[in-house]
Backbone:
């Protein structure tokens, strides 16, 4: 089994790279009825709706509705670290971020790209 492979195989849809606005992404934080729960990494938006860890009471709720690239790279749960900028980070943090991107890519559908993202 490859690195970061899920324990149970996941059937993913083909990636969708349609632009999604920051405003729409912000509504996808698990708190707005009728909206899914999304997390973005390096501009790619993943649908994490089925994972309770990203729900309003979940341990990773801070990432929901945002591009959380910097926080994931730094293994931080601080709200102020949940932002898209990551290019100034140390190489070891960039490696962690790439590992998170791989992890999410094997588990969650890509539903869009953050509109105007410059952190790809």
Residues:
């Amino acid at each position: 089994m490859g690195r970061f492979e899920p324990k149970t195989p996941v059937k993913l849809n083909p990636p969708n790279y349609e632009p999604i606005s920051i405003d729409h992404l912000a509504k996808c934080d698990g708190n707005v009825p009728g909206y899914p729960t999304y997390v973005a990494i390096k501009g790619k938006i993943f649908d994490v709706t089925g994972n309770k860890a990203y729900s309003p009471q979940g341990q990773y709720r801070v990432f929901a509705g945002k591009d959380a690239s910097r926080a994931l790279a730094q293994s931080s749960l601080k709200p102020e670290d949940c932002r898209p900028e990551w290019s100034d980070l140390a190489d070891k943090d960039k490696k962690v971020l790439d590992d998170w991107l791989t992890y999410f890519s094997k588990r969650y559908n890509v539903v869009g790209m953050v509109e105007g993202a410059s952190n790809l």
